[in-house]
Amino acid sequence: MFRALIFAAAIAAQPLSAQDAEPHMTMDRMAEIVQALDEDAQINGNGFEFIIDDVPVLIVADVRANRMRAMVPIASTDSLTPEELLRAMQANFDSALDARYAIARGRLWGVFIHPLKELERDQLISGIAQTVNVAQTYGGLYTSGAAQFGAGDSSGLQAQLLERLLDKGEDI
After folding, report:
1. Segment 98-153, tens digit of pLDDT
2. Count of structural domains within the chain
3. Among 122, 151, 152, 156, which residue's Cα sits nearest to residue 136?
4. Which domain range does residue 155 map to?
């Protein structure tokens, strides 16, 4: 259960040599990683569409702008209550972590945004898992499942999805 936390601590404790550094993230490398997570993933120009635990995931990347965004639709904004919006904003502070709740085009989304070139394999997998987790835990725990900032209003962890996806992407 604490594999992701132990993994992060181990990485932070060991400086990377030039030999150990991962190659820059490219669209081809991202496609390889996404297809390891879902062999039925669809590649559409600068993006990907795939399913994780019955949750549709969209990734859009812009190589020139050096940005990527993983997105998961959660709910129509028409159905959101003030209490749900407050709870989502609280989660953005302490339990959503790298994923975030966001609103665009009349929909509540779970999103993970990162510079593309600097993105490492495990960061991508973690970001996808966290984004799926914020969608699955919306209305309940409101958590990304990775860890929690202790000074906020949220409680509880849900790290199982992150651990399972890290296992799938381990050999890439």
Report:
1. 999 999 999 999 999 999 999 999 999 999 999 999 999 999 888 887 655 555 55
2. 1
3. 156
4. 3-168
Is the pLDDT at 5 greater than 70? The verdict is no
Q: How many contiguous H segments (helices) and E segments (strands) does the chain have?
A: 5, 6
Alpha-carbon distance 170 to 121, whole Å? 9
Q: Record the tokens describing residue 23, joined without a space.
A: 């190659």
Instruction: Indicate which CATH number applies to the domain containing 134.
Output: 3.30.1460.10
Cβ–Cβ < 8 Å for 59, 27: no
Contact residues for 3 (Cβ-Cβ < 8 A; gap 6+): 159, 163, 166
Could you give the CA distance from residue 12 to residue 23 in angstroms, rounded to a whole number? 18
The residue among 124, 161, 135 whose CA lies nearest residue 146 is: 161
pTM of the model: 0.76
